[in-house]
Design goal:
Blueprint: E1 43-51, E2 54-62, E3 69-78, E4 81-93, E5 96-103, E6 112-118, E7 121-125, E8 134-140, E9 143-149, E10 156-163
Antiparallel strand pairs: 1-2, 1-10, 2-3, 3-4, 4-5, 5-6, 6-7, 7-8, 8-9, 9-10
């Protein structure tokens, strides 16, 4: 008997105002803040996305960060069906925070390193990837804005999500 796999997706995008990174506390060029600085993403979020067949719902859920790990799930629902899903692992090791996406449950070839963090936004980058090169999140009042782009702001996908019940 087959068991259905849970359909989870993580949305990674936000319109960012690229602010300065917090200074490192250890003298390195890594941004300070670690996973604790990502607490603004914690919770359940819901927004809309556009597809060829119309608009759908995007859902993202983020756990609160522990000392070393934060997890996220995302799914895109169109006409009552999940059409894309992803989960993300945000892990801190040796003072570095890395976001690893798992689109459709498959580990991405590219890790995204946190290069900037401030009170309500974070930027992850992987310059060697074709698209996306950057993943960012920003908390704006009651919204969480997720953004992916090509590193030049030429090719951009962005989603604005509002707090939602954690069913």
């Amino acid at each position: 008997m087959k068991t259905a796999r849970p359909a989870f997706v993580i949305l990674l995008t936000a319109p960012l105002l690229w602010g300065p990174a917090l200074p490192s506390t250890d003298g390195s060029d890594r941004p300070a803040g670690g996973l604790a600085g990502l607490d603004f993403m914690t919770g359940c979020w819901q927004g809309t996305f556009q597809a060829e067949r119309g608009s759908g719902t995007i859902e993202e859920h983020y756990t609160s960060p522990s000392d070393n790990l934060m997890l996220g799930t995302t799914r895109y629902i169109l006409e009552g069906r999940t059409v894309m899903w992803e989960f993300s692992k945000l892990e801190e090791s040796d003072g570095e925070v890395v976001l690893t996406p798992f689109p459709r449950g498959q580990r991405s070839e590219h890790d995204f390193r946190m290069t900037s963090v401030s009170e309500n936004e974070v930027l992850f980058e992987t310059p060697e990837h074709d698209f996306p090169k950057r993943i960012s999140y920003r908390r704006d009042d009651e919204s969480l804005i997720a953004r992916i782009d090509d590193g030049t702001d030429g090719l951009v996908d962005e989603w604005e999500m509002k707090p939602a019940p954690c069913d």
